[in-house]
Amino acid sequence: MDFGHPLMVVTPTLDGDVLAALARADAEFSGRELARHVGYGSTEGIRRAADRLVAQGVVSRRAAGAAHLYRLNREHLAAPWIEGLAGLRQQLIDRLRGLLASWDEIPRVVLLFGSVARGRATAASDLDVLVIRRSDCDPESDSWRAQLAELQRLATAWTGNDTRVLEFGEGEVSGSEAKSVLKDALREGIELLGSRRMLQRLISAKVRR
Amino acid sequence: MSRRTRACDDAVTAGRLRRAEQLVDAAETVREFADDELDVADAYVTLCVHAGIAAADVICCVSLGMHAVGESHSEALALLESVRPDGSELAKSLRALLGMKTRAGYAAEPVAAQDRKRARRQTERLVRAARDRSTTR
Q1: How many CB pairs below 8 Å do chains A and B form together?
Q2: Which pLDDT does position A177 carry in this prediction?
Q3: Residues B87, A25: C-beta atoms closer than 8 Å
Q4: A206 at the B interface (CB within 8 A)?
Q5: What pLDDT band is residue B1 in, cutting at 50, 70 and 90?
Q6: What residues are paired with B7 via a beta bridge?
Q7: Where are the alpha helices (DSSP H) in chain A?
Q8: Is the pLDDT of residue B50 over 50?
Q9: Contacting A residues, span 122-181, partner chain B, CB-CB under 8 Å
Q10: Taking the C-alpha atoms of A145, A146, A147 and A153 in order, what is their torsion angle to the nearest 10 degrees?
């Protein structure tokens, strides 16, 4: 899926992005505000898209002086599905947190990073997950490997994006080959389990030795 | 919208997120290095409150393309409440933090331990929600 344009899973049009923008707030937007919020397309193009959605009843329109204000009609039968599609990224994050919370062998830190975390991922992007093992975890144990395989399989199935799990033990996080990617994860990582603060501590603790 | 708001672009959103995270880090550092947490309770809660406000701005920027400006708590809360799907819950967290703001800054008695925990919980919730939503770093 395209994380920046979640309604692309059903419609590759500007209308989908207008719906996604309207679904994220129970508020009225002028055509100009919508255009700025959607981030591309002309104001006129956005207004035409919004008017097409008004014709379907899923968006309401109200005159305010010379302008029209648009709002998602949350009483429409389709509204719950539109809201659901607009929130796919958060649903992925919540599902990943739920999955990790159910694991028998709990990692120290798990972060979602890369283009998905930055909201720039397209349908062709990888889904990058950083997993830091606890020091007492056997990285070769069947149970640990099965957990990681399940994470990889499920996250790929949930999104269609190839999931890459980058795994380190907590004692090796300051290794030279790891530094660059850890820096990225610290800056942009979304906390799925544990915290970036904890990861920073693990890195610092190693450096001081 | 008739509320006092400011439009935000990626730079504003990223800046407010950085501010929220810096304030959370500062709050935790203040707490960790204090000999007695009570000594720094007011400073801790004040930093949490400002982190929560910055996080609320990020959430509004992402969902509405604008954030509240000015001193009006009710306007900021109303704007956050309009965010879907969880604006009502997030507004409860911000409301709790704003309620502690005056007391932490001006009251003679330091903030009680229970309120410090509450401030931490509500701040973490808002900052996490901001980080989950934000696509700018």
Answers
A1: 53
A2: 55
A3: yes
A4: no
A5: very low
A6: B66
A7: 14-23, 31-38, 43-55, 79-86, 88-101, 142-159, 179-188, 196-208
A8: yes
A9: none
A10: 110
Q: Which residues of A143-157 are buried (b: 16+ CB within 10 A; e: fewer)?
A: ebeebbeebbeebee
* Token pair 């801790």: residue: B44
**Does residue A206 have a pLDDT over 60?**
no
Non-local CB neighbours of B79 within 8 Å, separated by 6+ positions? B3, B5, B60, B64, B66, B67, B68
Alpha carbon of B19: minimum distance to chain A alpha carbons (Å):
13
- B101: closest CA of chain A, how far (Å): 25
Q: Is residue A207's pLDDT more than 70?
A: no
**Phi, psi at residue A112, to the nearest 5°?**
-90, 125
Pairing of strands A127-133, A163-169: parallel
Q: Which helix (H) or strand (E) holds B87?
A: helix B87-106
- Amino acid symbol at B45: V
Write out pLDDT tens, residues B68-95: 998 888 889 999 999 999 999 999 999 9
Tokens of B81: 């409440």
Given a cut of 60, whether residue A208 has pLDDT beyond it is no
What integer pLDDT is reported at residue B113 of this predicted model? 84
| Backbone conformation region of residue A162, classed left if phi is above 0, alpha if psi is from -120 to 50, else beta | beta
Our CA-based measurement puts residue A127 at a distance from the nearest CA of chain B, in whole angstroms, of 15
The interface predicted TM-score (ipTM) is 0.80
